[in-house]
C-alpha cells in the first residue's frame, strides 16, 4: 500500500533548468572561462549537490569552497526572484498536492539543494501548505549525493516507512537511478517535453495535471 509520495525538487517541482544553468554559467564564467557543456550539466550539475559540482570544475583542492557555494546559490536565488514567469510550481502540481493531502498521503521532499535554497523555496512557493518541514531532506553533507540511494534511504527512514510504500517523482538521470537503487515501489520521471531521461523510470509525465491516476 502506497503511503508516501517523495519529490525531488529542482526540475521536478519547478522547471528551473534554464535558471539553474544560467546561474552556473555566470558563476563559472570568471573561474574556468567557459560555459559547462550539455554533458557536464547532465552528469555533474543536475541532481548533484553543489560541493561535488564545484570540485568537478575547480578541483578537489579548491580553496574557500564555502564562500564559493554561497556566491553560486545567491546568483541562483537572484535569478529565481527576477524570473516571475517561470519561477512557479509545475502545472497541475498544487492541485495534485491538494489531492494527496485530502487522501492522507504523506508528502516529502528529497533534494540536493542546500538549506538556504530550500528555505527560500519553502517560503516563496508556500510549500508549507503541503509539506511538513521535518519531511524535507536537503543536502546537509551527511550522505552521498545522487546517484547514491542514500538521500532516498534517509528520507524513507525519516518517514518511518518501508521502501515499497513510497513513490518517487524525479527528473534527472542521477536522481532516477538513486530512487530505483533505494528500492521504492515506483519512480515517475517528469520532463516537460515528455522525453524519458532514463530507461529505469516506471512512468513519465510532462506535468501533474493527471498525476493522481498513477496512484490508482
UniProtKB/TrEMBL annotation:
Q: Write the record's keywords in alphabetical order, separated by commas.
A: Carbohydrate metabolism, Hydrolase, Magnesium, Metal-binding
Which protein, by its recorded name, is this? Answer: HAD family hydrolase
Give the protein family: Belongs to the HAD-like hydrolase superfamily. CbbY/CbbZ/Gph/YieH family.
Highest taxon, organism lineage: Bacteria
InterPro entries under this entry? Beta-PGM-like (IPR051600), HAD-like_sf (IPR036412), HAD-SF_hydro_IA (IPR006439), HAD_2 (IPR041492), HAD_sf (IPR023214), PGP-like_dom2 (IPR023198)
GO molecular function annotation? hydrolase activity; metal ion binding
Query: Which PANTHER family does UniProt cross-reference here?
Result: 6-PHOSPHOGLUCONATE PHOSPHATASE (PTHR46193), HEXITOL PHOSPHATASE B (PTHR46193:SF18)
Q: What cofactor does this chain's UniProt record say it requires?
A: Mg(2+)
Hydrolase: is it a keyword of this entry? yes
Amino acid at each position: 500500500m502506497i503511503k508516501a509520495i517523495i519529490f525531488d525538487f529542482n526540475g521536478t517541482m519547478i522547471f528551473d533548468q534554464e535558471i539553474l544553468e544560467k546561474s552556473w554559467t555566470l558563476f563559472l564564467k570568471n573561474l574556468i572561462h567557459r560555459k559547462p557543456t550539455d554533458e557536464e550539466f547532465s552528469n555533474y550539475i543536475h541532481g548533484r549537490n553543489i560541493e561535488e559540482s564545484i570540485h568537478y570544475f575547480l578541483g578537489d583542492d579548491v580553496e574557500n569552497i564555502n564562500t564559493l557555494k554561497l556566491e553560486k546559490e545567491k546568483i541562483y536565488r537572484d535569478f529565481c526572484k527576477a524570473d516571475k514567469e517561470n519561477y512557479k510550481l509545475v502545472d497541475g502540481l498544487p492541485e495534485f498536492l491538494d489531492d494527496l493531502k485530502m487522501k492522507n498521503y504523506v508528502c516529502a521532499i528529497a533534494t540536493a539543494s542546500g538549506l538556504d535554497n530550500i528555505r527560500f523555496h519553502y517560503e516563496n512557493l508556500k510549500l508549507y501548505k503541503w509539506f511538513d518541514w521535518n519531511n524535507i531532506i536537503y543536502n546537509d553533507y551527511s550522505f552521498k549525493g545522487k546517484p547514491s540511494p542514500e538521500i532516498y534511504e534517509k528520507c524513507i527512514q525519516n518517514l518511518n516507512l518501508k521502501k515499497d510504500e513510497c513513490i518517487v517523482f524525479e527528473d534527472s538521470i542521477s536522481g532516477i537511478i538513486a530512487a530505483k537503487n533505494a528500492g521504492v515501489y515506483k519512480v515517475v520521471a517528469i520532463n516537460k517535453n515528455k522525453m524519458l531521461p532514463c530507461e529505469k523510470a516506471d512512468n513519465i509525465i510532462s506535468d501533474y495535471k493527471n498525476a493522481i491516476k498513477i496512484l490508482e
